[in-house]
Amino acid sequence: MEHLKKTCESCQKCALGATRTNLVFGTGNPNADLMFVGEAPGEQEDLSGVPFVGRAGQLLDKFLYAVDIERKDVYIANILKCRPPKNRDPLPEEEEACIGYLREQVRLIRPKIIVCLGRISAMKLIKPDFKITKEHGQWFEKGNFLMTAVYHPAALLRDPRKKEDMLEDMKKIKEKLDEWKDLD
Fold this sequence. Notes:
Shape: globular
Strand order of the largest sheet: 1-3-2-4-6-5
Number of strands: 6
Strand content: 5-15%
Helix content: 40-55%
Distance between the termini: 24 Å
């Protein structure tokens, strides 16, 4: 994992490598059964080098707490490791430049469950025509992984009416996680 992080730190595959303050590689348990994947770092993440530490990350922490999942027990990463200017959506070429790093993180961590945080992550990892409003909380099997998508916490900050859906989805994730643990 350290070797992969060092490789990312020197990456210049796209223009974002030149504009980042810090690489936002990923954080958490490198042996996690549960991995969350967002789209790209925001301003606070770029400043700290840690994913999901701004307002959206604080909201994610509240949902983890609500379903009795400790942040230290999961792994959190993004498709992009560098912040797009003004928090714009990642460009397809930026996603393609970075996706190999995420795949390697997944290979090293070997989570049982991958949760996409938001539509963009779900469209890249689950299926290109993913509809977050319609398909959040649904389960998909991809290779050796069970995958689902939930609303991005930033979307919940903009539309708090979706928080109840998010809580229900997080409860389902906790149930699946507990099922896996019972099998071990």
